[in-house]
Amino acid sequence: MDRHDIGRRVASRFVRATGRVALAGLIGLGLVPFAEAKTLVFCSEGNPETLNPQLAVTGTAMDAAHPIFNNLVEYEVGTTNIRPSLAESWTISPDGRDYVFKLRRGVRFQSNAVFQPSRPFNAEDVVFSLMRQWKADHPFHAAAGGGFDYFQDMGMADLLETIEAVDENTVHIRLTRAEAPFLADLAMAFNAILSAEYADTLLKAGKKDLLDTQPIGTGPFTFTDFRKDVAVRYRAFPDYWRGRQTVDTLVFSITTPPAARLAKLKAGECHISAFPTPENADEVRADPNLRLYTTEGLNIGYLAMNTTRPPFDDVRVRRAVNMAIDKASIISGVYGATGTAATNPVPPTLWAFDPTIPRFAFDPGQAQRLLEEAGLKTGFAVDLWYPPVNRPYNPNGRRVAEMIQTDLARLGIRLELKTAEWNSYRAIMQNGDFHLALYGWTADIGDPDNFLHTLLGCTAARLGGNNIARWCDKGFNNLVTEAKEISEIGRRKELYAKAQRIFHDAVPWAPIAHANSMVATRAEVKGFVIDPLGYHIVENVDIAEPEPGR
Fold first, then answer.
1. CATH number, position 445
2. Does residue 214 sit within a domain?
3. How many helices (H) and strands (E) does the chain have?
């Protein structure tokens, strides 16, 4: 009997015994096991644009990178509470500018065909991971597949003053100013810790690009391979510092249509499914073999107006668009019970939300009068882009776009609907190649800075930045920048309230909705906790053994 025959017998026994993954699904992903193994399959909504979190700008890519890496600090699963990770402890100076991190000892890096680590994780790796993004003359600053957009948009280049390895297990970071969300920023994906030794090995071998395309980290899973439109595959890292995972293999099965993800979940071809639609949610609840996890989402779905392109450089036109969109119909028709109408750029679950700011009323008559004042009585023609994949903040981009198209047509605004593959779509948004676009955001940290500064600050209005409306208001920017630099919540709340008022008056967006985050799983999945930041955390997730007689 050769190894293929053994593999077929083991695979058959695996499927019969557990009922967890259909054999057809395993074969389709090239995952028929040759030894008794446990495979966890996550149905992802799209292709990651990268597997290096330093380059990631979408939740899709951050999900795909998360199993490979750790940060100095991290969020306690299911919360926005910071806890130690690769840093065991830290101290902060009274003026908020000096952070000293004591690093965890004995943490091992993963290996691959070109790299076998000779030492544990240490301070050199922390310095490398930050300096690589910060300094243009760093040998690894020129990255394969993109730039360090998050690092730039978060203002890290201006925030950092020095990064020093005090000794092998101590790192000192000095800031140019106090920064209230700095610890939370360090928990974000782009601040993952890479191996300086791996980088040095690749530099000597003339294979620098592998740092980003064949990633090495300290996380629970080792990267195996990535086949676009098919799957990202991982194996459990046996030397993981928290202990080996109970599953042997992890697969991100790339399945863009929500209906296809639900079908795979029902068939047992995946165990966890991203972003079920409101319609899917009802089916999941009704199926005894499935489970639906839901939580209030820290997110915003919005219509961005490119303020650098006429006629959206005119605030009267932007206000008219806000008044012409029937947001209540969009909520009821697309989001259902999972959505609430948005007023401000921050969700009402965040402490900075200002409830006194009024929502733009649905008033087509007033919208028409504003267009007439702007000299656009007969309307105009522009493009409206919508995302090709469903997102937690927008479960059906095309349907929302069609409803907006109908609403604005009443004012003579003729919209040509456009879309593109998700990674191309994101690039179009960040390069400003549109007039109107549906986009959104799920928070990276539980701080209003992640909405107001990251999405609407002047730094992020650059090409490649997350301020896709290209709106730069100096008064707004000064307020949200000052709010970053102080720790007193009451004062920060005052500054953010003023900033939200400026946003409301200038309306670079038409805020649409905040939506609940939802994840669907098989009933046999154990240990999964839904993340309020919208990620899909698979560390310590297990698959239960079948009950006797089943």
1. 3.10.105.10
2. no
3. 19, 21
